[in-house]
Amino acid sequence: MIIRLSLILLGLFYLTTAQAETSKGLTVGEAFSLDTQELLYRETHCQSDDQLNRKVLYKNPDGESIALKSIDYRNGLATPSFKQKHFQTGEETEVVVNGNQVTLSFTDSESQQKKKSFEKHTYSDLPLVIDAGFDAYIRENWNQLVSGEDQRFQFPLVTRSALIELKVSSAECSFEADNTQCFRLEMSNWLYRMLADPIELGYSQDQKRLLRYRGLSNIEDANGNGLNVDIRYDYSNLPQQACTDDKALVLKSETTDHG
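The structure assignment produced for this chain is given below.
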C-alpha cells in the first residue's frame, strides 16, 4: 500500500469578494512532471491585505481552473486552518483549528465524508505543523537545520484521518542551483519511509524563500491519480491581475460549499 505524503506550499475560510478584490499576488508556481518535464498546472498564491488569509488558485496549462485552496493563519503561521476543493474530482480536504482542538475532514468523489477531531498533542509532545505551515516552521528552525540538526513534528494526513510524524533535515540539492539551501522532508518511521518517497525543498539562502518543491503534489489528475511534480516558484513576474481576475472562481466555490 502506497502512503501518499503531499504538501502544498502556500489551503478554512474562503475569501469574500471584497477580500479577493484587495488580494495581492505573492508568487506563481509552475508544476512540471518529474518524469516527462511536461507542464501540468500553474498555481497562483494570493494574500489578503491583513496577511491572515491566503488563497491558491490552480489552473491547467489551458487556463482552466482545477482547484482552489484557502488558508486562514489566525491560529498561527505553523498551524493554519485550510480548505481545498478539487473541481475535477469533487474531493474536498479541510483542517479546522479551534484552540487546542484540530478537526480533519475529507470528502471523496462520491461525497462520502470522513471526520475526526483530536487535541493538538494527542499522540506526542512534538509540535504540530499543518499544511502550508511547514514553510514557516522551516524558517523558524533555519539555523538548527542548516547546522545539521534534524527537526521532527506532527502533521495531519487528512485522507487517513490521522497524525503522522515527519522529519525535515538539511540535504544536498539534486538539481543545479546557486545560493540554494535544500531540505529533505520524510516520514520518521522507517517502515513508512519504505512506502513514501521523500519530498525535496529548495530555498533561497539569502531570503529564505521557497524556490523548488520536488515530490508528490496535492493536486491529482482528472482520474484521481497522484502527480509527481517539480514546482518552480517565481516571485518577480506576477501578472498584474493574477488575483483580482478570479473573483468568479471564489464565488463558484462558495456556492458549491454553502448551497
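Interim note for the steering committee: Residues 1-5, 7-22, 251-259 have pLDDT under 50 and may be disordered. Residues 17-258 form one domain.
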